[in-house]
């Protein structure tokens, strides 16, 4: 409509469906014109750094080749797909060899491995900002029941750390207690009886003073203190931090209980 605008790579809801905006005319003096493609798949994956589950609508094109190869043990499919997915902070971390679960056929989950990430062809400069979408090439992979979760449609799923049922506050997180240098940070949750515990106080204690303000709370105005039922710990772009540790402590609102975890700073 007149006065409306949009950007390449964004998802729009129209006619009860999700669409990926793939083109936008530069001439927008009167109205903005462009092209959209109908999304046919919702793709999700687990962030390797934070453990959070990320979901994005995408356009999955038909296989540009499909055949079967046989060996002595089994017959393998070598189908390949091309996926168009919005470019953002989370999708930018997708890389070669990342595995995705796209479908379930005859009760069997089908997994795919990223073989190519095109982050340049469909990205554009507009008003000094990068817009656009990623193009991924996927090759069929083998489902691993030991590491893949068919119910959640997630490959290489890492279960959140379980905490015992107790009235005391406890820290809950996914994966290892590590924070990547110059990464988006890792999220930690305060729980009581396995549920979010609001009003807690978080503090950071570095193993050396050189880490002061370099390993910090991304969701606070104070680098070493934040209130709430969760926090995100991040580290600045400084290679000398590699291998150092900080102690993350959460204290219950009433001050009667607390829990701590030692976080290691690692290089990418």
Descriptive notes:
The chain is mainly β. It is 0% helix and 48% strand. The chain has strands at residues 11-14, 17-24, 34-38, 41-46, 53-61, 68-70, 75-77, 80-86, 99-105, 108-118, 123-126, 129-141, 170-172, 178-180, 186-192, 195-196, 201-206, 215-217, 225-227, 230-235, 245-251, 258-266. The chain starts with 10 loop residues before the first strand and ends with a strand. 25% of the residues are buried.
Offer a few descriptive terms.
single chain; globular; seven-stranded antiparallel beta sheet; 48% strand; five-stranded antiparallel beta sheet; mainly beta; 22 strands; 268 residues
Percentage of helical residues? under 10%
Shape summary: globular
Distance between the termini: 45 Å
Q: What summary fits the major beta sheet? A: 7 strands, antiparallel
What class, by secondary structure content? mainly beta
How many DSSP E strands?
22
Strand content: over 45%
Q: What is the overall pLDDT average? A: 87
Radius of gyration over all CA atoms, rounded = 22 Å
Overview in brief:
The chain has strands at 11-14, 17-24, 34-38, 41-46, 53-61, 68-70, 75-77, 80-86, 99-105, 108-118, 123-126, 129-141, 170-172, 178-180, 186-192, 195-196, 201-206, 215-217, 225-227, 230-235, 245-251, 258-266.
Write the SSE topology.
Elements: E1 11-14, E2 17-24, E3 34-38, E4 41-46, E5 53-61, E6 68-70, E7 75-77, E8 80-86, E9 99-105, E10 108-118, E11 123-126, E12 129-141, E13 170-172, E14 178-180, E15 186-192, E16 195-196, E17 201-206, E18 215-217, E19 225-227, E20 230-235, E21 245-251, E22 258-266
Parallel strand pairs: 14-22
Antiparallel strand pairs: 1-2, 2-3, 4-5, 5-8, 6-7, 8-12, 9-10, 10-12, 11-12, 13-15, 15-16, 15-20, 17-19, 17-21, 18-20, 21-22
């Amino acid at each position: 409509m007149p006065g409306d605008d949009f950007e390449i790579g964004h998802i729009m809801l129209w006619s009860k469906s999700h669409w990926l905006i793939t083109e936008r005319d530069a001439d927008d003096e009167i109205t903005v014109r462009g092209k959209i493609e109908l999304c046919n798949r919702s793709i999700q994956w687990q962030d390797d750094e934070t453990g959070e589950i990320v979901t994005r609508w995408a356009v999955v094109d038909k296989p540009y080749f499909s055949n079967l190869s046989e060996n002595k043990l089994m017959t393998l499919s070598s189908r390949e797909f091309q996926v168009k997915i919005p470019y953002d902070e989370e999708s930018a971390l997708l890389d070669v060899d990342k595995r995705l679960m796209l479908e379930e056929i005859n009760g069997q989950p089908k997994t795919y491995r990223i073989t190519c990430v095109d982050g340049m062809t469909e990205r554009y400069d507009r008003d000094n900002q990068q817009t656009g979408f990623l193009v991924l090439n996927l090759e069929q992979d083998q489902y691993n029941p030991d590491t893949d979760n068919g119910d959640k449609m997630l490959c290489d799923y890492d279960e959140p750390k379980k905490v015992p049922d107790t009235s005391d506050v406890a820290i809950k997180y996914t994966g290892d207690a590590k924070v990547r240098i110059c990464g988006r940070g890792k999220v930690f949750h305060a729980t009581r009886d396995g549920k979010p515990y609001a009003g807690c106080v978080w503090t950071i204690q570095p193993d050396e003073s050189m880490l002061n303000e370099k390993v910090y709370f991304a969701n606070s105005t104070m680098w070493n203190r934040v209130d709430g039922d969760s926090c995100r710990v991040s580290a600045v772009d400084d290679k000398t931090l590699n291998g150092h540790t900080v102690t993350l402590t959460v204290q219950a609102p009433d001050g009667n209980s607390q829990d701590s975890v030692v976080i290691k700073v690692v290089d990418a």
